[in-house]
Specification:
Blueprint (H helix, E strand, L loop, with lengths): L8 H7 L15 H5 L4 E6 L5 E6 L7 E6 L6 E5 L5 E9 L2 E7 L14 E5 L6 E4 L20 E5 L11 E9 L6 E9 L5 E3 L8 E6 L5 E7 L3 E6 L8 E7 L6 E5 L5 E7 L4 E8 L4 E2 L14 E5 L6 E7 L3 E5 L2 H13 L4 E7 L7 E7 L6 E5 L10 E6 L11 E8 L5 E8 L9 E7 L14 H8 L3 E5 L9 H5 L8 H15 L3 E10 L1 H12 L6 E5 L5 H6 L10 H6 L1 H4 L7 H6 L13 E6 L7 H13 L5 E5 L9 H18 L4
Parallel strand pairs: 30-31, 30-32, 32-33, 33-34, 34-35
Antiparallel strand pairs: 1-2, 2-3, 3-4, 5-6, 6-7, 7-8, 9-10, 10-11, 11-12, 13-14, 14-15, 15-16, 17-18, 18-19, 19-20, 21-22, 22-23, 24-25, 25-26, 26-27, 28-29, 29-31
């Protein structure tokens, strides 16, 4: 249990009265509580651990930057705030200066002519300086051209603070387009965060460099390149003067992938292993220029997904943070491992992500982000051996106010067998108050992508919103999903509407057999999940009473080939090299694509359907929606329909998020009522 109350009284009026205040009485929470922006977007300790940077909108309409002095009696500083944009991506350069970017989270589709830019500010809120301009040819308030770098620059690396001096330089990359417009190169530069001046590096990268891995000092060790159809990675170790190519592959995969470097000159890579092709983390053997035979970290049943945690100052690996079903951290450093154990004892049943400063020292200070499937999380400061006048536990804030974990649903991870004998991972979220053995009305929620991992053991707004309304939520990690081995991933290639769709149906059939799901079920999802919703109603009409599809792919031919009159953001490179392999070739697979294109099968959709689209969506343009709607109307069946102006591939504007959630709730209550 937490042993003290917060001493940050001057700041808590912005964030929460007391993170351990009594929970509100049980009631049906409004959609806004689930779908508004989090109260604390990010939090980051300074290099010394004496300050905490927090981004929050609790003080006004926009997300601003606050700096908390964590010493006894310390005061918060309102370091940066804008009236028309929100602060994001904060990083400490050194103890007294920070970087951040800005975006407009309320505008829906961003203006393509405006970029996040890059700003610097002192920890006391002084000396704000624009380092990378948000617009081309921007001017100052006096009408002169801004001295900031043009928007074709981006932050690449903030070197670790030096022990003997305050680092004033960071690495930025200048984006240079190719004549064809299909490729670009990233050229690193040193940028002084006080003066705004740049200087060249001596990295001399190979041509067509598109990505980098740097060590803690900002020295490049790996450079990624890309040509028309190939990718490569080059290595340059501490004793090397030239770049050496270490791996080459196509645009979809490499034989192994450089993952991270430390300050000792070690390279770590991920590589697929075993019949299921699970990705593992390996040390790269510089003597042979090959990955080591034995993995350094493996996560059976899951691809390695995580990061090495490097010690500040030395750059040595202290531990590894990985995500299997849930996030966990394995510490190599004994002192930090003891801190983690103490934190986990005081905060049981949660993922407790810790970030430590001066670990192993008497004045160690730890930032704890504690969250679970039922809790969006909270931030606390923990001192293993507090000095006089300081609490051991210092609460900071809830990530989201208004969420009582006791009212939220539990999330479970399962693996089942599909009809063709494959293993299918899935997530089950059970609503509270359902009697054991009594099936509940069900929403099968299909993730987008589809080449991504769908879920993890953490609080999710849509899942918890649906569960709060009494619905069992099933989220299948159908074949084609990443994170569960290369075999599972590749099994989804060219299977849109086919075995991928069978997996979704099998997840529901399993839940019904287990008496978790009732016969009252709807299918729902966005993007690919919207496509799967439509194909579920077409291929398995007896399973679903209704469907909800948003920003949904409806026309596979339009996806694969594009159209001169439909503006989308799918690149020519993707349509030439990856889409034909993973979705289908417009010519060779024409029959297969036609047989699984909802717009051509619209007459087979007879269940109630809600369709929602963003009017400025470039990923799945509105034409996908209008074509399907017109085809359904011709067959005598008019779906419920809503489009949102100024929205793209999802809902950025809060009022639209709330409106859509309320529509979802009303639609489900009409077609699969809980009572």
């Amino acid at each position: 249990m937490v042993k003290s109350v917060s001493i940050l009284l001057a700041f808590l009026w912005l964030l929460a009265a007391n993170v351990f205040a009594a929970a509100p009485p049980a009631s049906l929470l409004a959609a806004e509580v689930f779908f508004r922006d989090p109260d604390v977007v990010d939090a980051l300790m300074s290099p010394s651990g004496k300050r905490l940077a927090i981004t929050t909108a609790r003080s006004g309409a926009r997300i601003g930057l606050y700096i908390l002095d964590l010493s006894p009696g310390g005061k918060p500083v309102h370091a940066a705030q804008f009236t028309d944009v929100d602060v994001r991506n904060v990083a400490w350069v050194h103890e007294d200066r920070l970087l951040f970017s800005v975006v407009d989270f309320t505008e829906g589709v961003p203006d393509p002519n405006v970029r996040p830019g890059l700003f610097a500010v002192n920890a006391d809120g002084s000396e704000v300086k624009e380092l990378i301009s948000r617009k081309h040819n921007s001017t100052t308030k006096f009408g002169t051209k801004s001295a900031a770098l043009d928007p074709n620059h981006q932050l690449l690396k903030v070197p670790a603070p030096k022990a003997d001096s305050a680092n004033e330089e960071v690495l930025v990359g200048k984006l240079i387009g190719s004549p064809s417009g299909m490729l670009s190169a990233v050229v690193p530069l040193w940028l002084n965060v006080t003066t705004g001046k740049t200087r060249a590096t001596n990295f001399q990268p190979p041509r067509e460099a598109v990505g980098w891995l740097f060590d803690g000092a900002g020295v490049p060790r790996v450079v990624f390149t890309r040509s028309d159809k190939d990718r490569s990675a080059y290595w340059r170790g501490p004793d090397m003067t030239e770049w050496k190519k270490i791996v080459q592959g196509d645009l979809i995969e490499l034989p192994f992938t450089p993952h991270s470097v430390d300050d000792m000159g070690n390279l770590f890579v991920t590589q697929q292993e075993g019949p299921e092709g699970y990705a593992v983390l390996k040390r790269f053997e510089l003597a042979t220029m090959q990955p080591a035979a034995e993995p350094l970290v493996s996560t059976p049943g899951f691809d390695f997904t995580g990061q090495l945690i490097l010690e500040r100052g030395t750059g040595a690996a202290q531990g590894v943070r990985v995500t299997t079903d849930a996030e966990t951290t394995v510490w190599f450093d004994g002192a930090i491992r003891k801190i983690q154990e103490a934190v986990d004892r005081d905060l049981p049943g949660h993922v407790n992500r810790i970030s430590c400063r001066r670990c192993g020292q008497p004045d160690a200070v730890v930032l704890v982000r504690s969250f679970s499937d039922q809790s969006p999380g909270r931030l606390l400061i923990y001192r293993p051996t507090p000095v006089e006048g300081q609490p051991q536990w210092q609460p900071v804030a809830f990530a989201r106010r208004g969420i009582d974990a006791k009212q939220m649903a539990r999330v479970d991870f399962k693996r089942i067998q599909t009809r063709d004998g494959k293993e299918l991972p899935l997530w089950i979220t059970q609503p509270q108050g359902v009697e054991a053995g009594k099936p509940a009305p069900t929403v099968v929620l299909v993730h987008g992508g589809p080449w991504v991992r769908g879920g993890s053991w953490a609080w999710n707004p849509m899942t918890q919103f649906l569960a709060s309304r009494g619905y069992l939520v099933i989220e299948p990690e159908f074949r084609g999903s990443r994170g569960y081995g290369a075999t599972h991933f590749k099994a989804g290639w060219k299977q849109w509407g086919q075995t991928m769709q069978d997996d979704v149906a099998d997840a529901l059939l399993w839940a019904q057999k287990e008496k978790l799901a009732s016969g009252k079920a709807c299918i729902a999802g966005g993007s690919y999940g919207g496509y799967s919703t439509l194909m579920g109603l077409i291929r398995h009409p007896d399973l679903y009473r209704c469907g909800l599809a948003w920003v949904a792919v409806t026309d596979l031919n339009l996806l694969v080939k594009g159209s001169w009159w439909v503006n989308d953001d799918t690149t020519a490179l993707a349509r030439k090299h990856t889409i034909p392999e993973m979705v289908g070739d417009a010519e060779k697979d024409a029959d297969m694509l036609a047989a699984n294109s909802p717009v051509l099968l619209a007459s087979q959709i007879r269940a109630p359907l809600l369709l929602a689209f963003g009017e400025e969506d470039k990923r799945v343009p509105l034409a996908h929606g209008t074509r399907l709607r017109e085809a359904m109307q011709k067959s005598g069946f008019d779906p419920e329909w809503v489009t949102y102006p100024h929205e793209g591939h999802g809902w950025s504007i809060l009022k639209n998020r709330i409106d859509f959630a309320n529509r979802v709730e009303a639609f489900l209550a009409k077609h699969i009522p809980v009572q």
